[in-house]
Queue: 4 jobs
Job 1
Amino acid sequence: MNWIVSRLRRRKTQSTSLVVLLLLALGVTGFLTYQANQADQDHRTNTEWLLTNYSALVATRYAELASSTLGSYAVEVFRSILKDPPGTDEPFAPSISRHVSEQCQCDPLATMRARFSYDFKTDRLVTEPALSREAADAIRSALRTNPGTAIHLLWKMGFEIDSTGPGDVVVFAVRYADAEPSEAYGITADPAILETMLPSPHAFVRELPRQIENDLTYDEVFGIAVESPDGRLVAGTHASKDTYRGTATLSEGFGGMKITASLNPQAAASMLKAGAPKSRLPLLVTLLLITAALIGASVILMRHQSALARERADFASSVSHELRTPLAQIRMFTETLLLGRVRNDAERRRSLEIIDQEARRLTLLVENVLQTSRAERGVARLAPADIELAPAVREIVDMFAQMPKAKSVQFRLELQDRLHATADRNALTQILHNLLENAVKYGPSGQRIDVGLALFEDRARLWVDDEGPGIPARERDRVFEMFYRSPRDMESRVLGSGLGLAVVKQLAVSQGGRVWADDAPGGGARIVVEFPEAYLRAEESETGWAVA
């Protein structure tokens, strides 16, 4: 027993150490998951930063090209004005129309709303046709606030998008005298004129260096949008929310227009081969949960192992006690016989009967232990054969009824004659001995134990009823588990090893049968065992027999 306690303590220490190691493994796995997730986020952040900056570079390149193109238009458009500017009383437009149409192969007059000239010294604005006061004030504001872009030593030109009116574009040239603005000439037009003067976003995108391995078109790779300072779209298309975007702004001389370049994520994935990586967090969390589940399962298995170890220790204690009792009885009555302390033949016979009974009891207990061991190792020593059950059952019950502990019990047999089944004779003896042993042990003194046998379809049913407290419904499956004992039995201090019904189930199943617990008709417990391949060798007996 000390050895068993020592083993249990050592096993408990080992289990605690294993739990600590598993928890450390979970902690390390969680830390690695966190670090991997951080690396994944850093990778995504760097990739998004790279793609966004690439988009910003594209926007800057387009802004530079747009500034150069608009400046070229300005030089060509106002070339004639630089040589021979008209007077302030003589507004112009034909020269602008001619030069713009030569550059963009369009008709600016189709989008022009008005032409004007302006004298900075006198604040005199001449327009054709006449404009509203608000439109005239917008022109004056554009001329005085827009610094323009130098296109000649004495001239600057500019574009301004009116944000207070319908969004007209003011295109103008300013002449300087003594470093001060002197006069200005220009037109107001529909913003569509800028779309004809700006570089084509589609053509610009086609010239970008790229390596695309999917079927995206040029326009689906990059989107270019030119917007006014107040957010109105001048040219191109607006970027969607699921793109990488970069921005650039034209100088104030070009109206402060905003350029937005947007990169399609599908194109980004192809350009970067792997693209912006998908988040690995779901996979990492799944692995962490699997690790936690495995650790939980390990803890449950260890608890189950500890419980099994305790059950084995209890079993060893119970078996030791049950072995000690018959051995003590055998030794005592053997010594009585050896020392000649019996007074007559009746006492001598009584002593021999007790020795025989305890020896049989000891044999049954040893057989149960051996059967348990054989079942765990998968070694079967059964030889099922065709036997007639009723005579065998009567013989076993008669033999059991001779034991002193069964003297106060009444046995009633209801057996169907001529019933044959495939079963092992020794296994049948052990099964019925265990059932009768349990019935006597858990039933009251003076009770009646019913033993029945009948044919049901092609199976033979053997059952034993007692008048004890019965088996609760929630425990009827567990009572057939190895080493299991009901808490009620533990409290009542009824001795037992927890092997009897487990051995009954093992022997029944190994012969192709089954076993279950139920309520006895008169109260108490009923244990039913079925044997396969049963039949009646002749006609049914005329005497009645019970039905389970």
Note: Confidence is low (pLDDT under 50) at residues 1-5, 86-94, 540-547.
Job 2
Amino acid sequence: MTEAQSRLERRRELTRRKVEKRRAERKLRQQQKDSGLAPFPTTTIANGKSEWTSVEQETQARREAVEEQLRVYRNVLPILLQRLKEIPDPRNAKTIKHKSTVLMLYGILAFAFQMMSRREANREMTMPQFQENLKLLFPELDSTPHQDTLNRLLARIQVEKIQDTLIELIERFIRNKKFCRYLVSNRYSIAMDGTQKMARNHCWADECLERHVQHKDEDGTLTPRPQYYVYVLEANLAFPNGVTIPLMSEFLSYTEGDQSSSKQDCELKAFKRLAARIKERFPRLPVQVLLDGLYANGPVMEICRQYHWQFMIVLQDDSLPSVWEEYRGLEKLQTKNRLERAWGNRQQRFRWVNGIEYHWGPNERKRQTIHVVICAESWEEVDGDTAQIQEKTSRHVWISSEPLSRDNVHERCNLGGRHRWAIENNILVEKRHGYQYEHCFSQNWEAMRGYHFLMRLGHLINILAQNTAHLAQMVRRLGVRGLIRLIRETCKGPWLDAERIRLLPSSPQLRLD
């Protein structure tokens, strides 16, 4: 057999497998429908040609996308610019060319348009057509500054005030009841998770954490070398519909550790600081905290109870052996704590035990009453290689602050605890989908944090825009990154109509889909 014939046979085999897989998937969907199971909706964008058939249609769609995004900006910019204006500017007022609010708005737009670096922002956003469109959309941008000017400003101001501006926007949305329909048990779900922002082989700031990693020398030997990294604990509002709203960031710092015992700052210490900040800013907000297995310990539960927060914490198999022992013993007595139900295309079997006494602290003098629930689920999928229907299984375990029952186990687990993954997806988006989470942007610690807070503001504005009624439909057709790319390219070209922009309301309402 020649090489061409062999290649042809491989193509035929791949085509045959694809056809068999599609047939098996159609058969599986029909079986699930007959059984009363409703598969979860997919978010895959259509694999087809452009729906616009003329330049006029494309022009109209581009204008509508930018105008809808501008409505969100005009809704949040008044309070945003007012709070940014209140940040003290240490520069000489007689020599400055750009106001601090202009500089920071320019930084927010750089992240909203997903510029990859300061250099790209300088190169792209200073193009004549881009500048004209920015001035049309944002009259506050009377001139386009250089990114180095923003960097110098962030290195000297109180960058925490930028994050306070983001928090104040969230407070305003909560007061206006924008998120009421997304609550779980009438509480706001706040997911927290830590992640590494960047790592370097040299100590570029005293606040960097330090660790030793194995380095392979030229002769093949492994030697430990120091590595300096930045770690951040993030807190986001996580809603059951998949919307995740950036809330607060807590940077871990070497200076926050115990210098006398050579102990560095850690995620649990950062959680204590972050929880205190959230409680201070939202003292009466009903909160349910969603945490991973690292936080399954007494001090974290004690803080949540002290703040009157509910919690759902992942319990791993090798964590809290005394709790697992109590669970296995009480499970035989609480035989009615069972529930089987269908959720999407999955069959779920819940088992839970209420009233477990967890002792901790010196001589185990401290005590917490907790409740443990196990969710075992199964579903069917089509194997990509054999086109055979295979059964898949998974198991999830949570510690609940509230007693569980047949009436609330679905809401607390499926709508609450499971959506802790939303913050992981949010961090993935900021790292890999255009927001350059892992990029340093500045070798100054304070400026680096300032860029981080500006990035979170830019991401928040994009999230709000993408979940408005009109743009949500475009996201389904183009995808999130496709929509952002469309808006960015439209602002770079001569697509906009100045008269239409001027006729838009100056203070529009924000209506989420």
Note: The mean pLDDT is 91.
Job 3
Amino acid sequence: MSQLPRLLWSVFAALLAVTSAERVLAQAPEGAPPFVPGELLIGFASGADREALVNQLDATRERLRAGGEAPAGLSVVRRSGSALKLRIEFPENIKVRLRSNPDAELDLLQEVARQLKASNPNVRYAHPNWIHSINPPPAEITPDVQANLQNIGTEFAASAAGPTAPNDPAFQFGLHWHYGPLPGGLNAVNAWKLEKGSRDIVVAVLDTGFVFDHEDAANSPNVVKRGYSFVSRDNCRGAIVARKPDATDPGDACPDKGEKNSSWHGLHVAGTVGAIGSNNGRGIAGVAWNVTVVPVRVLGPLGGSNDDIADGIRWAAGLPVDGEPSTIGRRADIINMSLGGVGPCTEEAGYGSILQAIKDARAAGSVVVVSAGNGTFLDNQNKLCQRGSSPQCTHKQIDHKYARPASCPGVISVAASDKRGFLAPYSNFGTVSIMAPGGDVSKYEEYTVNGKRMRYPLGVWSAVNRGDIKYEPYQGTSMAAPHVAGAIALALSKNPSWRGKPDLIEQKLRASAVPPPQGACPSNKPCGPGLLDLVKLLSQP
């Protein structure tokens, strides 16, 4: 997804996503996503090839040219998978030029990357350290809905317990429409009669982190305390930060750069998987009543870098990560990534680091579930633009083959559906693996909550940490992906022989898909094999 306005902090009424056929994008957007200044990621054919460059760093610097001049300095940080992060210090006169035109740095970095690859046949990829984010669909809030949300913390009272239907208030009040029957839900209510999960199944959620003291998570046996943070740079302050064995989400607001409120995105996503306490008479329910969720923080304010995400993937898959003594313990059976950027997933297109990490994770036996993406902002020249920068800068859905990691080989890519089972008006489309509930907060229904009639949007309900507001409905492919991750967790609990076999799991998932209603996916916006049906998935032989 992209470094465009990324904060989904509340419920929205006016959805700005474009749905008309003529504005659906089926060609590659132009322009580049944001990047970490002064850094390149380089992958080598072997560790020996990497060390050869490290040992000849001074000679390499003298041969390189950026803007016609040799870099003033080069430094390296070794990374897993025979890779390294190259930090480039430009000469002072180039620094002066970049202060007035910082966007020009990307051309310099890519110039150096091309030289490194052309001069060394052992360099497999060399590209900028791109920044990814959660990229929520654009929309706006209405005062009446905000007033209703202000009461959620006090309105959600405990309900009577049930053996197959969770007693969590959000479910009891009917807010969890996304767990109901198809075409709107994923058929979880009927699936829970067959399987509720096992804590032997591990799901790693790579996101903004987790709020471990949230009222619906503090005593949950389904979440591993602390987890790990791979965030090495605060993009809001432009400062280097230390990685640490603590995935606590401190919030990702950046008021100075337009992000006034924190998203609590990782908490919301992990809650849908099952990190919170399902059937505990409090708050919301997750897809898997029993599961082990490991939070892995890879996104901070204004997103996270390729480098941090790639190492987070490796760590979650139980693979060693250079410089990190901690291990995940048990390899994650499932890795959920509700994040991304714009661009194809190829080494040639500058995506080698995460592409290789995904390959390694799958080889280790982890299945990788990713959101298909929520479109992007483009101008009338099909170039990436900043929301609000001009009247020509509008939001468009795009084919998921132009989104990453959604287009990476071997991932399970998830498009979003609404309560009708239709492709959501913000969701990317194409040959995705499956479609699952992501919500549409431009649509509303009334609910009776503790005897009061309340009006809420048809988003996906999960946990947040916004003062007195502890639960909110969000929309997005970010919400669709954890439904699939939770569904796979239940399927692996029921079918242990599927564990460690990513190709088989995707085959079973696709085979269980149900065709959506007529007109749900127009011919110019295909959406894969169909809707997720959890009962059919659990019933696969």
Note: The mean pLDDT is 90.
Job 4
Amino acid sequence: MPQEAAQSPAGLARSAGVIGLATIASRLLGLVRDLLLAFFFGAGNAMDAFNVAFRIPNLLRDLFAEGAMSAAFVPTFTRRLATRGREDAWRLGNHVVTALILATSALVVLGIVFARPLVELMAGDYARVPGKLDLTVSLTRVMMPFLALIALAAACMGMLNSLRRFFVPAFAPTMFNVGTIAGVLALLPLLTARGVDPIFAAAFATLLGGGLQVAIQWPALRREGYRYRPALDPRDQGLREILVLMGPGVLGLAAVQINVFVNTWLATGQGTGAVSWLNYAFRLMYMPIGVFGLSIATAALPTISRHAARADREAMRRTFSSGLRMMLMLNVPATAGLMALASPIVDLLFRRGQFTQGDTAATAAAVLFYAPGLIGYSAVKLAVPTFYALKESRTPVVVSALTVGLNVALNVTLARVMGYRGLALGTAIAALFNASVLLWLLRSRLNGIDGRRVALAFGKIAVASAIMAVAAWAGERALHAAWPGSSTLWRLARLTTVIALALGVLAAASRVLRIHEFNEALRAVFARLAGRRQSAAPPL
């Protein structure tokens, strides 16, 4: 098969723009989903129970399906495409899908059977509130099949991304949010009328969303020529390679899940609402990660994998460095903006229905301490798959284990001093540590990552973002004093005005500091939002 041309920075930016557009739709609908849940359930016992119950299949999903499997599958599938063609790659896809169906089905059954001890292990303090532990167990059993659905969705996503079909897999999470929103609205009155706890509407709606996430990707795969046929050949070299790569990945992610477990366990001991406050805050913080971080990483990974298959380290270095700088140009301002405007953002989005003023202040505090980790999370999403493309899966595992140890130590210590806010801060510090170590180690693997250029770009955008944050904070206080209205319209007007002011200050500071990377990254990633195609862009 003829070699494909290396993806230019402009091509990477266009691919990231496609993914970013789909991801923006997903994140916006995800926000609507969270607003809906906050309106109906607030941050009370039922919402705490739902969040812990949903976290259990999510832990298993990250461990066996979407996390280690995806990181091992995409480079292997891409390599098979590049060296043997589509027919052979489709056979590998069938082996992987069949293995996922068998493995996740077994895990779903085990999760349903052992739901009570799992919940008692993760949230034993819920037993102090009458009915809360039993409710969490029941919700866990309802939502366990989500694991199998999301595993299939991850396999479809991996195959489509390897074919450089980015929009549909990036749009798939949108269908999860659509299913959840529609399910809650449809089921809530029905279950309430029958005397069933309304929170079960959210649980059943989660399954609907998971099914839609698979359904929207399947036609796109069929158009590419994929036909699923049950097959499982343990002797297939590609399948064995995926399993070998997954081994250390599962161990590394197991360490991460230990950290998630410890965080959940600590949060459940912080009283009613803590789990929900942290969940709302993390979801809000995760929006820019998905739009800027994940979209760039997803667009870069197939290209990095192709360069790795040809042992072209120089091309890998250029693609990785370009993606990293693009991430920094967009995520550093997003971090500063979230920290400066955490309170008015949470107030505007969530304060209504069952979500009280106290919930608003608590969630905003969690956002403030989570936000610095945004940069770390985004960089890790690019760095870890790069190690996998190099067939070096043990390194991120070791770094992950060190990060988990640091995170657990920080969270246990900070939770005693700062309560639930300490959990957010400890998580952010650990994410930055994880990213820093991985980037330092990648330097030797890729013969450098343009470190001087990356550091200079980071320093400039950090200064510009700090100026923007000060302007945003001061502007919000001044506008609040001038426009003291508390209606949703007044709050929206104030926040919109402040954000416009902040973006103007950021643009001016970027021009004064001559941050060319910021202007190019912004123009390239969002060109599609204005309906334009870039035919070329200067190298980043």
Note: The chain has one domain: 9-530.
